[in-house]
Specification:
By secondary structure, the protein is an all-alpha fold. 83% of the residues lie in helices and 0% in strands. The radius of gyration is 19 Å and the shape is flat. The relative contact order is 0.11.
Length: 102
């Protein structure tokens, strides 16, 4: 229990920022109309490439015996890649709706 309290007291400002970001994100996403939600989210998923680059950097800087960092980095690369590909697939489907039919 002391370890948890020490971690919280050492990272108090970061924890406050994360909690504030959660509330701001909920407010921003909650106010997006349903019609705009899919186009905005498909574009936002493409930005997830930053997570992929960050995960690759973490994996590159991690020591070879730090399996937690390597595992989390690998998981972040896989999930980030799925999110980017999904964003492009959704965008492609949306653009198909606007093409002229023969």
């Amino acid at each position: 229990m002391d370890n948890i309290l020490n971690f919280i007291s050492a990272n108090q400002q970061i924890i406050y920022i994360v909690i504030l970001m959660i509330f701001v994100g909920i407010e921003v996403i909650g106010r997006v109309p349903s019609v705009l939600h899919t186009p905005l989210m498909s574009g936002a998923n493409a930005i997830h490439g930053v997570v992929i680059i960050g995960a690759i950097i973490v994996m590159g800087k991690a020591e070879t015996d730090n399996y937690l960092a390597l595992g989390l980095g690998f998981l972040a690369v896989i999930l980030g890649t799925l999110n980017v590909v999904g964003g492009f697939v959704v965008t492609d489907r949306m653009l198909e709706m606007f093409k002229k039919k023969n």
